Amino acid sequence: MQLGADHVRVRVPATSANLGPGFDSLGLALALYDEVEVRLVAADEVVVEVEGEGAGEVPLGEDHLVVRALRRTMDLAGAVPTGIHMTCHNVIPHGRGLGSSSAAVVAGIVAARALLAEPRAVDAATVLALATEFEGHPDNAAPAIQGGATVAWTTDDGPRAVGLDVDPTIEATVLVPDARLATARARAALPARVSHADAAFTAGRAALLVEALARRPELLFDATEDRLHQPYRAAVLGASSELLRALRAEGVPATVSGAGPTVLVLAGPEHRKRRDSVLADLVDETAGWRRLSPGIDLTGARARRITGNTGALSSGSSGATGSHVVPGSPAVRGGSMQ
After folding, report:
1. How wide is the angle at C-alpha 140 spanned by C-alphas 137 and 145, nearest 5°?
2. Which of 35, 245, 250, 296 could make a disulfide contact with 89, Cβ separation 3.0–4.6 Å?
3. CA atoms of 149 and 163, how far apart (whole Å)
4. Gap between the Cα atoms of 161 and 143, Å rounded
5. Across the chain, how many H-helices and E-strands are there?
6. Would you say residue 2 lies in a domain?
7. Per the domain annotation, does 118 fall within a domain?
């Protein structure tokens, strides 16, 4: 596969998985973005600079997650390896349940697609499959790629995802604590078995959540109830568990974001006054919380080819003749990734 560009910029949204009852399946893209700039260079070197979240903490060089995902995608497409100069501008908090690792993986995959002469040679199903290969499950990857709300599942042929409608009156608020929580620790708190009654209860709420998100935001409180994972994680969530209980005690639709410890509030017009009242008393920076109101991202990952050639393109490449947007996948709102 020939290269079509040697310089791209990528933007990938934060994501919140589960949304309460949709364990390992439902996800939502948030308008909070990591941005990555990639230049292919002729020199046999990998230079990575990280600004913002994760600076001084994440691996650099070939071990950086964006580089690994980019290399994997380029190898799959048969592109000739080159040197890489990369700058990451990270805004998504790390270790807080907001999909920072999925954003990095998707950034690498989408950057690689944009660098190819024929980006659609790596189709939507392959993009999701590659992301799931790194992540283990597609609940964060799907909304990061396509934006909006998604439901994802796995089959013998690989992961699949479809987009869901989201009522424009729904507001997303994320409450980010100072403390971090490793996904592995959160998963270790889960039991091997749950009761049939709890499984049936949660399945019903997950089905209701699809309707609440799309057309009936007044149902969000009931629709975000869960008996499958959040009760078992309370012991490792610390202050987040207490905040979650306080919000729900006042009828506010609050859930743990992903594995936590961030708390996600999905509020329709009828929930906002109660939300603001509880948060005014419990959440501020002096108490170790950040309150963010990012909005819901509807576009997903995007890459932009940048004019210019550093000489890293393979012979016969078309080169980059101007800036243009390369979507993360051809999926559209309400479409599917199969």
Report:
1. 110
2. 35
3. 6
4. 9
5. 10, 13
6. no
7. yes
Q: What is the pLDDT of residue 328?
A: 57
Q: Long-range CB contacts (< 8 A, 24+ apart) of 213-216? A: 213/149, 213/164, 213/165, 213/166, 213/167, 213/170, 213/266, 214/164, 214/165, 214/166, 214/167, 215/165, 215/167, 216/167
For every residue of 179-193, DSSP letters joined together read: ----HHHHHHTS-S-
Residue 191 confidence (pLDDT)? 86
pLDDT of residue 335: 39
The kind and range of the H/E element at 206 are: helix 196-214
Number of domains in the chain: 2
pLDDT score for 236: 85
Half-sphere exposure of 57 (CA within 13 A, CB side): 9
Statement to judge: residues 185 and 211 lie in one domain: yes
Q: In what order do the strands lie in the sheet with 254-256?
A: 254-256, 263-267, 171-177, 289-292
Residue 213 lies in domain: 171-292
For residues 187 and 144, membership in a common domain is answered with: no
Tell me, what's the pLDDT at 120? 85
Choose among 279, 269, 250, 244: nearest CA to 170: 269
Residues 274 and 142 in one domain: no
155, 40 contact by CB (below 8 A): no
Mutual angle of helices 65-77 and 124-135, in 10-degree steps: 140
- Rounded Cα distance, 302 and 149, in Å: 17
Write out residues in the chain with pLDDT < 70, as ranges.
Answer: 285-286, 307-338
Rounded to an integer, what distance in angstroms lies between the CA atom of residue 217 and that of residue 267?
A: 7
- pTM recorded for the entire structure: 0.90
